[in-house]
Amino acid sequence: MADNPVVWFEIYVDDMARAQRFYETVLGVSLSPLPMPEGDGSGLQMLAFPAGMEQPGTAGALVRMPGVAPGGGGTLVYFGCQDCAVEAGRVQTAGGTLHRPKMSIGEYGFIALAIDTEGNMFGLHSMG
User: Fold this and answer.
1) Interval 87-116: pLDDT, tens
2) Which of 25, 27, 58, 86 is buried deepest, with most CB atoms within 10 A?
């Protein structure tokens, strides 16, 4: 495997509007709808996080899919930040829960852990 192993992520949600408000507030970004193929009929909804194919990192989306529930206990996604304490400070105001405030992970920088409005745990990472 020559590239980074993760190329896409999906965060499953029950309430797309609520989850969209949460992530846009915490991360200070705007999510964009990903259109489904015409006649899809699956009820699938997706809102993509901003991403550039020429930039390093992984793209992903919030996903509402019938039959797939959000919640903890699965894969943990970390969002890159300048200072993860800033985004962590927005979590409760946006309706989430701060699980662990900014903490050092040694030479690898700092992380904070939070739980979104849908019950998913996610991480915030920064070098400073």
Assistant:
1) 999 999 999 999 999 999 999 899 999 999
2) 27
- Amino acid letter, residue 45: Q
3-state secondary structure of 36: coil
Whole-prediction pTM? 0.83
Tokens read off for 125: 């990472």
State residue 84 phi and psi, 5-degree precision. Answer: -60, -15
H or E stretch covering 84? helix 84-88
